TrEMBL record:
One GO term of the biological process aspect: regulation of DNA-templated transcription
Residue intervals of the PAS domain: 18-89, 142-215
Reactions catalysed according to its record: ATP + protein L-histidine = ADP + protein N-phospho-L-histidine
Record keywords: Kinase, Phosphoprotein, Transferase
EC code(s) of this entry: 2.7.13.3
Name under which the protein is recorded: histidine kinase
Species this protein is from: Pseudaquabacterium pictum
Source domain of life: Bacteria
UniProt cross-references to PROSITE patterns, sorted A to Z: PAC, PAS
Positions of transmembrane segments: none
Lineage, opening ranks: Bacteria, Pseudomonadati, Pseudomonadota, Betaproteobacteria, Burkholderiales
Amino acid sequence: MRLRAGRLRAVRWQGRDRAIRVHDLFEGHPQPMWYYDPQTLAFLQVNDAAVRLYGYSQAEFLQMQVPDLRHPAERADLVERLRQRAPGASVVHCTRHRCKTGGWLDIQISAKEARYGGRTAILVLAVDISAQVAAQQALQRQEQQFRALHASLSEVLWLATPDGRALLYLSPAFEQVYGLAAEDFRRDPSLWLAHVHADDRSAAHRSGQQLFSSGSAEMQYRICRADGELRWISDRRTLVRDEQGEVAMIAGIAEDITARRVDQDTLRRNSQELADRYAELARFNRAAVDREMDMIALKAQINLLSQAQQLPPPYRLAFAATPGDQVAVP
């Protein structure tokens, strides 16, 4: 009997010791924790971390129910789900809680069934993930802005693996410029060279070799679209290296410069035609001046012959540099 009584006392002390350790772990845990009644959904106990995060005092928490932390529009649905929770079920999910100041926190909830004061309760661990959610949302906004920017650009932006055999990214402008489905090009990047005009293909191939020898390359060439239309392309590409200096990817921009080339060709033709017209006018002016000088010389000779025969000169001279070289005015 004494042995049995001793064992019972030992079990009770072990139970008390375990309860003390659990209580200390709950109170001293760095993350917010609380117990709540699965029937009334009222808070039974909260730890100091919950008080610090949410701003409610212990007394205020004990006057609240779990749905009070949620948006009013969500509370009725939450009550229904919490009361239908299967016994013994553990739940992990993310939600938003309102703190005492009125601000909102993004919270990851881990809940499981536990014993509190000799009855069944739900133990909740709440982790504030507001910073992570804000960072993720900021990244998503940047990605949306990035996609919107690329969708609005007329240039084709692309990224490829270091060997150029696989595409990592291709902007939406590709289909408009090349007249090809982007998916076809992703499956076979060699379609690029196949659509370069035959007369420009060797130069385009050399541009690819220059890229790997010097780290960047730029050239202009013609492409034959799938519909047969001919377009001029300005192709700029560069090797992107990582912190160790290794090639991480190839980045390129392909721009349709057909209109610009047409304007340049038109301007060049107009400039040449204007130069030709000026040359023609200069030749005409020289011929006209020569004819005029010949006419003046002829009139001067007639005046001299008339004077030799004691006749009045038929032409009035405008000026006279020498007696034998005068300019006449009719």
